[in-house]
Amino acid sequence: MKFWGKCIPILAGAALVFAVSAAPVLAQATGTITGTVADQETGQTLESAQVYISALNIGGLSNNQGRFLILNVPTGSHELTTEIIGYTSGTQTITVTAGQTTIVEVGLRGTALRLQELIVTGVAGSTPRIKLPFTVEHLDFSDMPIPAPSADGLLQAQVAGVKVQSGSGKPGDAAQIMLRGPTSISKSNSPLVIIDGVITDNTMADIDALDVESVEIVKGAAAASLYGSRASNGVINIRTRRGAGLRVDQSRMTVRNEYGKSDLVNSIALTKYHPYALDAQGNFIDSDGNFVDYNDPYNSGDPMLADGGTPDTAFQDNAYPGTLYDQIDLFFNPGDAYVNYIAVEGRSGNTNYRASFSNSAEQGVMAGNDGFDRRTFRVNLDHQVRDNFSISLNTYYAKSHQDEVTGSVFYSLTFMGPHINLAARNPDDMECKLAEKMGGCLFINPDPHANTGNPLYSIENRDYNDDRQRFMAAVDARWSPASWFDLEANYSVDRYDFHRLNIIPLNYAQTQLGPGQPITRDPGSLHRYNSLSNDINASITASFNRAFGDLTTRTKMRYLLEDQHGENYSVTGQNFTVGNVFVLDNTEPGQTTASSSLSDVIAQGYFFISSLDYQGKYMGDFLVRRDGSSLFGPKERWQTYFRASAAWRIAQESWWPIDFMDEFKLRYSVGTAGGRPSFSNQYETYSVSGGIISPNTLGNTQLKPELSTEQEFGLEMLLYGKFMITAAYVENKIEDQLINVPLPGYAGFRSQWQNAGTLESNTWEGSIEAAIIDSPNMGWSSRINYDRTRQEITYLNRPAYRRGSTYIREGEALGTFYGDRWSRSCADLAAGTDCSMFQANDDGYMVYVGAGNSYTDGIAKGLWGTSGANGEKWGRPIKMKDPDTGSPFLFLGVAVPDYNLNWSNTIRRGNLQLNVLFDGEFGADKYNSTRQWAARDWRSGETDQYGKEDGLKKPVAYYSDLYNIFADNDHYVEDGTYIKLRELGLRYTLDSELLERLGGGGMGLESMAVSLTGR
């Protein structure tokens, strides 16, 4: 930049003098320099590189194909310097001969920041990252040194504005991905996924992360408009490895084996004490003083509460007699996990290829559960048929098996007393899988006071499995009749088969009444559910890439056809005739129910996109897309989307005064994208029960996709060539929200899907990427990501409603939840209350204490179980009410975090590399239903009063109040803030030189690495 600022006036004057007085001589005493600038490692050509001879103040810029041209260079030897942001500068000596053209091939070494990496998602053509007028994040496989079990895990905590969560924690379950916060009130917030050109709606859990070469993330409509009515939630584009980076006639085999253990890091606190009376011998007794065997699974007697025999005066501070069990530790068991992976890749002549196979399994942490296993096979092939014609083929097959569990395991465990041995066997029950081997079956109700079954029993005796098969294939053909014109055709298919089997065996125990008495047993059932989706996409694209002097243009036009076919059926047979024959013919005739469905969706799309690049400093972009889909109502079959973007690289101007700021770019983009309705939303639907047909949903011929209009303002700065700072402010307005609106009775239908809402949001996001140390033998790169999103439902054309714990109404943030609140100050009590009679206890709740008393006087003065003049129960929490409406339905929290923060580090010293990734979420409110369930039967750890001072002890009735009959209340709202070490990896690589010294060179080993990984 400094070179051009100084030399432009000199060049102008010199050109004038030479044109007038020395043209004949100049033609004979000069030559030409031309060549290509490329990445020396990958071979990627680099555009807008400055190539110059400093001593002569002459030079040029490389074009979009990496080629440069310098005319009228004096003869002789010169030092040719090449510079481009994101690469170390290069200097080489060249010799110019009069009247001749000197050809130079320049290879530059990239820095850790990789600012010139090419982006292909959402753009008119491959564009260097530094020239984008909107945000597209790029993750190379080197950014993901610790492979996740599947491709979705690669994104976790890597990029600002990307949230990846695994809600269930079960091996094989897909993670939930959200970009820049929620965009839909009722529909999915998951982004569109593209894998090697295959557009897919299916799970990423089937995609092996070891095959991934790069991931590009388009976070919102300002950049994702190219993908039209499927892109309001953003786009994730995954490209897999294909051997393209190898030298000609080079081949390589990669073998990776990984073994690990899965463990449960934390669990909720459960009770270790009880509130019951014991006799002098330490036995439980009932209210008549009779012995109660509280450990007996057949016991139906109730032990008497201590300290007066009522929940108002009984304290859970008595130790259980006998052996105690940690139910969480008993149930959860560290499981094995392993990965076997092999890949073969090569490049021969005009062909490059890569084939891979993987075998992986993860048992998880649940005792008796087999977890998840998967096998995958991939073949990628590229072939240059002629100089101007090439074809590419991608194929992928995955098969997986997942051992599921029925119901909620944690739910059952929280009700079990610590005195109960869940693994105990019932010698009176020999009708189960392991009865002969183990001397009986597990007790179905080992704790008769828990009102729930033994979770180990169902895992051991029921079969509940999911099997998935996935086949993906794509073929691309590219014809380039001219250097500036390409014609490309693509055809892809994604087939997904899902099979679920759920078996309750004959004589499955349901209840146990007592020793020697018959056990109530289930006659058994068989349930099968199969589904198939087959998605076909085809497109034809014309690309025009031309340079007109300093102006580079990229233009693309495409026609796209989508054909999605889905079908599913389920069948359930009841009452097995004989055991261990799990077929429908073995169930009772007349006790079989079945259902099925078919769906076909056709969509077409057209788009035109053009981008302009002038002198590598001024960038512009415009696109328009027209989408038609059978999912839209008949009167709204076609929708239009657009994008307009611009960027200015101010630091590239000749007058830029800040030397240490190598890059300063301002950018703006506005764009629209859509979110499609579900298949049935536009149609009338009916339900059938007992032979009676009832109207359900009214059709809507005017149903449109949701419309996201996003504006993005951004800046990028590079300081000292080492620190890249990126910041963006985003405003998003998502109109035409798809909402199921209840209808009045006279409409004849219960509800109708309508475009009946608007959701608005704003996001701040930024990152600091630093190449702190960048040398061949030592490196330290670091990246910090920050994002913060605020959103609000600004319009809702239906009455407010609840969905689970969340409350959907105009003026609220999506993810807000309501319920009961407990008074915490005098202002929370009813108007006119004498506040001197109340006090905040150590939990922070206002409680009635009466005149002259403190909340710590309950035991000392015998106040527990008493009431005030107006019926206030002494020491017990009091519910708030809205002072204006009198409603107890009050705000509890918002599940969306205030902000997210991630910090990744890669430290390299010689052949040793350390990777550390921290992930933090701050300010989110979480509702802990598991802790609340445990309080129902006083099994929660917080109900234990042992070790507390008498003044701080509270009876079990106090915790029953907080349990609140499982109604949502603020006692179970917890701060979801966390900072966790997300990934930690230590890797040592034995390179070819070291292997040669160790005697491994003769085996053809290029490198070998040993890693220790935690995630």
Task: Write up this protein.
Among the domains are: 2-108, Sandwich (Immunoglobulin-like); 118-240, TonB-dependent receptor, plug domain (Ferric Hydroxamate Uptake Protein, Chain A, domain 1, Beta Complex), CATH 2.170.130; 821-887, no CATH class. Helices cover 7% and strands 47% of the residues. It has a 21-stranded antiparallel beta sheet. Strands 10-15-16-13-14 form a five-stranded mixed beta sheet. It is globular and about 120 Å long.
The portion of residues forming beta strands comes to over 45%
- Overall geometry: globular
What would you call the structural class? Answer: mainly beta
Terminus-to-terminus distance: 44 Å
Q: What is Rg?
A: 34 Å
**CATH homology group of the domain at 118-240:** TonB-dependent receptor, plug domain
Number of helices: 10
CATH topology of the domain at 118-240: Ferric Hydroxamate Uptake Protein, Chain A, domain 1
Let me know the number of strands. 57
CATH class placement of the domain at 118-240? Mainly Beta
Percentage of residues in helical conformation: under 10%
Main sheet properties = 21 strands, antiparallel
- Give average pLDDT, whole number: 90
Short description:
By secondary structure, the protein is mainly beta. The chain is built from 10 helices and 57 strands.
Task: Give the arrangement of secondary structure elements.
Layout: H1 2-21, H2 23-29, E1 30-39, E2 50-53, E3 58-61, E4 67-74, E5 76-83, E6 90-96, E7 101-108, E8 118-119, E9 127-128, E10 137-140, E11 162-165, E12 176-179, E13 192-195, E14 198-200, E15 212-218, H3 221-224, E16 235-240, E17 250-262, E18 273-274, E19 284-285, E20 291-292, E21 318-319, H4 327-331, E22 335-348, E23 351-362, E24 372-386, E25 389-403, H5 409-413, E26 425-426, H6 435-438, E27 441-442, H7 455-461, E28 463-482, E29 485-504, E30 508-511, E31 520-522, E32 525-548, E33 551-574, E34 592-614, E35 618-629, E36 638-649, E37 661-675, E38 685-689, E39 692-698, E40 706-719, E41 723-735, E42 738-742, E43 751-755, E44 757-774, E45 778-796, E46 801-803, E47 806-808, E48 816-819, E49 838-840, E50 846-848, E51 890-894, E52 899-909, E53 912-922, E54 925-927, H8 929-934, H9 956-963, E55 973-975, E56 978-990, H10 992-997, E57 1008-1014
Parallel strand pairs: 1-7, 13-16, 39-43
Antiparallel strand pairs: 1-4, 2-3, 2-5, 5-6, 8-9, 10-15, 11-12, 13-14, 15-16, 17-22, 18-21, 19-20, 22-23, 23-24, 24-25, 25-28, 26-27, 28-29, 29-32, 30-31, 32-33, 33-34, 34-35, 35-36, 36-37, 37-40, 38-39, 40-41, 41-44, 42-43, 44-45, 45-52, 46-47, 48-51, 49-50, 52-53, 53-56, 54-55, 56-57
